[in-house]
Amino acid sequence: MGSTFKNSALVSLGVIAGIAISMQFSALAQKPVDQAIPMAELRQLAEVYGVIKSDYVEQVPDKKLLTNAISGMVASLDPHSAYLDQAAYRELREGTEGKFVGLGIEISPSDEGYIKIVSPIEDSPAQRAGIQAGDLITRIDATPVKDLDINEAIKRMRGEPHTKVALTILREGLPQPLQLTIVREEIVQKSVKGKIVEPGYAWVRISQFQEPTVEDLAARLTALYRQEPNLKGLVLDLRNDPGGLLQGAIGVAAAFLPKGAEVVSTNGQLADSRQRFYGKPEYYMLRSDGDALANLPAIFKTVPMVVLVNTGSASASEIVAGALQDYKRAAIVGSQTFGKGSVQTIRPLGNDTAVKLTTARYYTPAGRSIQARGIVPDFPVDETAEGDGINALRVREVDLDRHLTNDRDKEMAGARQDELEEELRAAAIERARKPLEFGGASDFQLGQAINHLKGTPMQLSKRAGGSVLAHRDN
């Protein structure tokens, strides 16, 4: 039963790490190679190239052959190393900068096979055009989106500034589809949001670690403190956060840890990959306009905290959760994280291309390796009161082909293939649960986090026996 599930289309429901990962950008010159150049293998490569050019059924452009050769060489290393052509490199930079050219909508697949609008981004072209949460996109220009890959749909909706895209929209309660033409603009996406969920208790969510994340977090926390100066507890929500920039993770952890505390360390083959990173401005500030955390209210160093994580929490979010867990600064609540504990360094090449190369592993301040293991919650709590829902369907790093092993902890062979996991996946399919709205009134895990902060009983995961556990001091 295990292998059937593992090889099925359930992968499409998971958060595939590598879309947004903990990264360092480097323009260092290529270092000398100690080993001799394998001339025999290079001659063989040239011979294969020649055979394809002369004998293949149709002509293949030289650029395509060489680009595919480079892509295959890099991609064969591990799931997160890749050659980035001009389009991929541009998309990566846009993602880390927190801005892109498009319509300004958050989307997800729908049960009907269409694209569902989760929400329009504030003051975006989509919002001004009247797009609403819950709308279903059935066509992008003339292309039906029925069962279209969501990444392909995103590509079709993005483009050059001031160009137009036509959307066909189904909206509940309307007898006819809506035809909307929207002009693409540069969208600035906020990665941090938060609110006071009830008197004394705040919720802050980070959806991805981008260049402005530390500044946005400081601004949001300060605003929440002004709204509720008598804070009794804070929930930091990192669920489904796929990662992002290393500096963002360091800055977020530094906001809550003692000043200058070690946040993460790395180790790899190169000397410059063996480093320790601390909660100091020089390690997390990407801009030269001052320390974003300098004026953060002091209460955030001591207020009781819970960090919410799930299987979709990867890389940079695991760095934050691991650091706060090691220092016992926060209780970690949710499910075991993705386990993406490797460093990708971006080596720019010519013609606006780059290589994204795995260069090191990440370690928590206590020396734990995140790779292929992830962060294990202090309190396992399911996605809903009935079970773990869609979260049980997601793959983890250990499920990916060619993943790096954990060098400091014996990797659990077949960790995702045990019978209990497959039963949970089957139950989740039967329930066919829709993605939850994080931070909403029906957010079960958030409710359990607040219970923990209040010192009242919380309902643990069914995998932990479904027992009820009382509050434990952080």
UniProtKB/TrEMBL annotation:
It comes from the Bacteria. GO terms for biological process: proteolysis; signal transduction. Residues 89-158 form the PDZ domain. InterPro entries: ClpP/crotonase-like_dom_sf (IPR029045), CtpA/B_N (IPR055210), PDZ (IPR001478), PDZ_6 (IPR041489), PDZ_sf (IPR036034), Peptidase_S41A (IPR004447), Tail-specific_protease (IPR005151). Coiled coil: none annotated. GO terms for molecular function: endopeptidase activity; serine-type peptidase activity. GO terms for cellular component: outer membrane-bounded periplasmic space. Keywords: Hydrolase, Protease, Serine protease. Pfam families: CtpB_N-like, PDZ_6, Peptidase_S41. Belongs to the peptidase S41A family. This is S41 family peptidase.
